[in-house]
Amino acid sequence: MKALVTAASVAALLLVSTGGASYGRPAADAPCAGQIHPNPGFERGTTGWTAGPRIVVLGDATRPAHTGRAYASFAGLDVTHSDLLRTTVTVPADCDLTVRFWVRTITTETSRSDYLNVGLAVTGIPPKTRFSLAFDGGAQWRQYSMSTGTATTERTATASFFASETAGNGATAFDVDDVTFTLS
User: Fold this and answer.
1) Burial letters for 64-102: b for 16+ Cβ neighbours within 10 Å, e otherwise?
2) Which residues in 77-123 belong to E strands, given as ranges?
3) Fewer CB within 10 Å, N side or C side of the chain?
4) 147-177, pLDDT tens digit by residue?
5) Could you read off the pLDDT of 21-59 as tens digits, one per residue?
6) What distance in Å separates the CA atoms of residue 172 and residue 105, rounded to the nearest whole number?
7) Backbone phi, then psi, for 57, in 5-degree steps?
8) Rounded Cα distance, 90 and 156, in Å
9) Alpha-carbon distance 67 to 44, whole Å?
């Protein structure tokens, strides 16, 4: 009889500790799910980003943001200079990171001397320019996407936006908004 009571006690303890026979606890959020950047739309200025001066601007009726009220804007002065915006996120092991962003180009340029290079550097892989956009990108918002692929170890990924403008060929402004960092 004592053995039967002990076996019943162990079974009851197992049910309590596991949350029941058929109703286990919900699994924790998967590490490879969701948007992970704290400020993808620049609504909080440069929080979470390393940026040069004058990068984040508020949209207006003539140049609204893609969503929200703010976006990053590069160049647009018809002077020789460059602007850099970048951020780094951690990519857990066995996860793929997809970076999606929107770009709009406002220009008076007639030659291909102003550009926006978009890069993605991932731990263990040489940095690479994924997109090189010029004055002919269009005045409407267009979406672009780049991905890290998966790896068996945790990595860091740095997305960078580098704009260069040359004086005398007309002004080109590159606007960037809604830069999402989604794990899958």
Assistant:
1) bbbeeebbbbbbbebeeeebebebebebbeebebebbbb
2) 81-91, 97-107, 115-122
3) N
4) 999 999 999 999 999 999 888 888 899 999 9
5) 434 444 455 689 999 999 999 999 999 999 987 788 888
6) 7
7) -130, 160
8) 4
9) 13
